[in-house]
Amino acid sequence: MSxxxxxxxxxxxxxxxxxxxxxxxxxxxxxxxxxxxxxxxMSDGPHGLRRMPDVHAMSQGESMPATCFPTASxxxxxxxxxxxxxxxxxxxxxCIALDVDVILGPGxxxxxxxxxxxxFEYFSEDPFLAGEMAANYIIGVQSKGVGTSLKHxxxxxxxxxxxxxxxxxxxxxLREIYLAAFEKAVKQGKPYTVMCSYxxxxxxxxxxxxxxLTEILKDEWGFEGLVVSDWGAVRDRVAALKGGLDLEMPGPxxxxxxxxxxxxxSGELDEAVLNESVRRILRIVFxxxxxxxxxxxxxxxxxxxxxxxxxxxxxxxxxxGVLPLKGQQHIxxxxxxxxxxxxxxxxxxxxxxxxxxxxxKELKLQAGNAELTYAAxxxxxxxxxxxxxxxxxxxxxxADAAVLYIALPSYIESEGYxxxxxxxxxxxxxxxxxxxxxxPNTIVVLNNGSPVTMSPxxxxxxxxxxxxxxxxxxxxxxxxxxxxxxxxxGKLAETFPVKLEDTPAYINWPGEAGAVRYGEGLFIGxxxxxxxxxxxxxxxxxxxxYTTFAYSNAKVSSHTFKDVDGVTVSVDVTNTGKMTGKEVVxxxxxxxxxxLVRPVKELKGFAKVxxxxxxxxxxxxPLDFRAFAFYHPEYKQWITETGDFDLxxxxxxxxxxQTLTVTLESTLNxxxxxxxxxxxxxxxxxxxxxxxxxxxxVTMEEESRKAFGSSETGESHGSIGMNIMDMFGxxxxxxxxAFVQSNxxxxxxxxxxxxxxxxxxx
Length: 762
Ligand code: BGC
What we know:
Helix content is about 35%, strand content about 20%. The protein has about 750 residues and is an alpha/beta fold. It has a six-stranded mixed β-sheet with strand order 9-14-13-12-10-11. It has a five-stranded parallel β-sheet with strand order 1-2-3-5-8. A five-stranded mixed β-sheet has the order 19-27-26-21-22. The protein is globular, with a radius of gyration of 29 Å. It binds beta-D-glucopyranose. Beta-D-glucopyranose (BGC) binds near residues 151, 231 and 348.
């Protein structure tokens, strides 16, 4: 293959090369007929196919019918990587039937704030979970010979000013939080393409950012596919090629193509850079075309799969025992979303579904002989309608239970803009409260893409199901769980805060004057709430079941281990209730001590297990080097430190059932990073620094105590009332020497340079 590609490149004109690097139209690359290079067809993504009937036209009319699977907000809550693979396989079958080479998904951006308009398209606030989900989605799709586009790379965590805003994020948070899910997905899944984001990262457009596209993605992670721009994300085509962006979409963009040709002719752009992008594009075009695109897909089977995934993604947040429903004679079904399912968000991921399960009808099918009555309860917009509340209350009063289907107005959660707040509409809050007042068995079913405020009403109701945006079969999945056909097993892939003001990004959202500062650093989601001890409505990883689980007998393969070997954790989980159910076992790692600040705990492994009543299974979860490492911005690499770690095994981030303490031995031989600005304390923390500076420091300490009149034990703080050595500890060596200059054999700066030369020669 590489020979064939090489041969084509030698035969291509400069104009053809430049044209190949820019799309031919909205959805395809530029074909080169004379050299037998076909076009590559792309379509959105991520949770279904938005295939336009004419991929060569610029129009954005109705797409071809395709299965609308649950959105990432729901699939992530399944914590089931096998199911995500199956989703990927089904998506690929639809791509093959509808003639699509690459599906534009999955999205692996972090949920930095619940307000991001596109959160429903993203998996989690946690990079490990999001990375696992994205990797398995990719593996599923690509196992059938269809490509994926992992997006939006990177640091696209809001819609506000998404085409221009600069996300200002420090390198460590970039690596540990914002890139980590992409890294996992790239390394494990090997996507055909990665899509860059619109925004700037620390002042440079993501489409031109050499650091992320070339240094990290291609060189460090070994990405072999092509980088495609988000649609319209390129500002400077030549700079983008230099940065590592291979394919600009959409096209045609004749003036851009011309600019690339001119840049090569003038010597501004090295033709080797262009050739490399051409090579990457050709490789993916030919690879994708190995799979013939023909046939049909099984719409019934895919609808059933969509239903299965959404039943597993539903999270039971509260249940006083009213669920599963049993023996009710009359159920009041309240809420517009019961008749008109709210199952997807707005924007480029909007699918034209093959069919839609209507929640009310589906409940009726499963509710036995119960009488079901309906009231809309709220309008489709944010208007306040007391009459609708009154009707709902009248119905609920005479019923044995009330099921409220609550969904925000459909346009609120969308690509292109963020939510203004986390609240349900004023009408919906009033409705829930009014119904709950007359009906003790009030059950709230939520369909949203991101957390909503619940504190005003949650104490009033008997049960709450979080359904997320569940795809076209969601209505049936809700009935499955309400009626107990399926035991809920979803767990939250994000924290539900009590109120917006509690969220970590609150004071740095959504940015101003062209930039948004990621001031909370590493501390997004539960990393923040845990560390800051902020109470939450529902913690990360939380979800109830109709049964209960007990954890016992936690073991680790070795209590002392080398970082490169990792360890394996195992725990016995027993179903202690009366119904078959599934539990998501989560392993978090807590570092006892580190040279840099670390979150209290971080998710590093999980597994989902199904258990019959009374059954016990041993769950095994491996932890590798990265489970214990952090990114050190000065060493510019992932490092481990020798020391103790707690392995926290739990049913959620806040419900730790078993703890094991292990000792890690770091095998890293880190280079010495002491420089002229390193402080005395930093010198003394480094064994090599201590050897060089230690003896001199003893003398210097005596001298300075004399000079400043403070005593060694600290009881006398001398002429200026301070412990001088505490101040010196956090000053660079040369600066300290300047204070005691008169006692030194040569200028302090020179002495500091000598120490530095000595330490670097060790
Ligand atoms: C979105 C992408 C999408 C692309 C093509 C962009 O506006 O950000 O996620 O894949 O359009 O529709």
